Amino acid sequence: MCTIGLMAERRRKSNKKFMLLSALGIFMVVDSHTWTAFNLFGSFIPYNSFFMPMFVFISGYFNKVDSSTKLGKYTLKKLKTLLLPYAGISLAVFGLQFLINWFKTGEIQPVPSGYLLYTLENVITTGTPNSLATPMWFVITLFATLMIYALLKKLLGRIWNSYIMLAIFTGLHLGVIYLTKTSGPEDLTYWLLPLKVLFFLPFLEMGIIYRDHLEGLHTKLTGGVKIGIMAVLLLFNVVRTMYLPNAYDVAFDDIGELSGFTSPYIVTPLISSIVGILFWLTLVDLIGKPLQESRFINFMSCNTFWIMGFHIAFFNILNCILMFINEHIVDVLYFDTEFFRESEWYRWELVDSFKMVYVVIGILGPLGLKWIFDKLVLASGKIFKKKAAPHQ
Q1: Given its phi and psi angles, is residue 39 left (phi above 0), alpha (psi -120 to 50 degrees) or beta?
Q2: Domain locations in the chain?
């Protein structure tokens, strides 16, 4: 994902298709957490059937590691671009959660004994630092996936064949699905992170194969052929839902804890992910050019971590405002104060379309916060530079 540093700059200049694809991906994450206010093609290709594998696919597309890669330098880079933002955002969201809980209950909630150890355990298992930053589990998993892949590529780079490795990774992926379907959640707690790495490795390799062998062919297809591909993929998913016990079996709800694989077939998550990635990759290639030049889309794409980490907090900030209005100004029809006090996942639904407000707040709030953060960093840099400048 486009976060900071040279990768962000490179995508801004020459990979606008993938910048748009990552922006759409993070939009889907926010939309899914409002229970699909917009639901872009979600009736045919549910978000939860592909969007997290799509982020790994995008990371694979930009992955350049090989046998000559210096692992120490690569690790340091990933620490800066993945774990440092993870830690900073998680800490900031923890502070927001403290303030939100204070506002909701009117009391300062003490930090429970052993909370730090509990948090560390969550970070290395589910990847979730706190409840308001639940989606940040993905960052830990992505870091681990990239590091394992880099180590394998370093050791086997001279004999590496992407297609053979994709077949191996796919076998391991299917093994993970089988294991999760035949084991209790409590049996997998401390195996979650390595199992999630095995789940995602095929999609990392797919991104590399697409970049090296398929992108040119895909891009050169005529508009009619691309529309045909998308139509076939939509129809394919319609047929799949007819043969699965439940239509939503094509999706999987909680990769963070490796649960939600309700389909009786272990190949379902893999097929669903490929269908979703190919559909949106083709759509972006077909009609995405006007959006690819948007400065807002570029900014959104380069700050997916901020949106991922802060959007649920901003949902709750909106709820705090509604709660204040409800209790001190005028009754907010059907706003359930008690439900909100008990859950970070409460959404006010006076009308179904109000969910769109949550989506807008969940995107613009974190981006506005990032814009302010950038301005403060820039201003502080100028101040320190001025102080450090020699006197004339």
Answers
A1: left
A2: 51-290
DSSP per residue, 131-192:
GGGGGGHHHHHHHHHHHHHHHHHHHHGGG--HHHHHHHHHHHHHHHHHHHHHS-HHHHGGGH
Dig out the tokens for 241 from the structure.
């839902």
Structure tokens at 286: 């077909």
Distance CA 91, CA 59 (A): 25
* DSSP sequence for 277-296: HHHHHHHHHHH-HHHHT-HH
DSSP string, 190-226: GGHHHHHHHHHHHHHHHHHHIIIIIHHHHHHS-HHHH
The Cβ of residue 147 has, within 10 Å, a number of other Cβ atoms equal to 18
**Model confidence over 133-190: pLDDT tens digits?**
999 999 999 999 999 999 999 999 889 999 999 999 999 999 999 999 998 777 888 9
Phi, psi of 30 (to 5 degrees): -65, -45
Amino acid at 65: V
What burial letters (b/e) apply to 63-94, b meaning 16+ CB within 10 Å?
bebeeeeeeeebbeebeebbeebbeebbebbb
For residues 1 and 55, the answer to whether their CB atoms sit within 8 Å is: yes
- Alpha carbon separation from 67 to 109, 169, 176, 266 (Å, rounded): 51, 19, 27, 33
Burial class, 239, CB count within 10 angstroms (exposed 0-12 / middle 13-18 / buried 19+):
exposed
| Amino acid sitting at position 135 | P
- Res 55: pLDDT: 97
259 forms beta bridges with 254
Output the CA torsion sign for 101, 107, 108, 114. negative
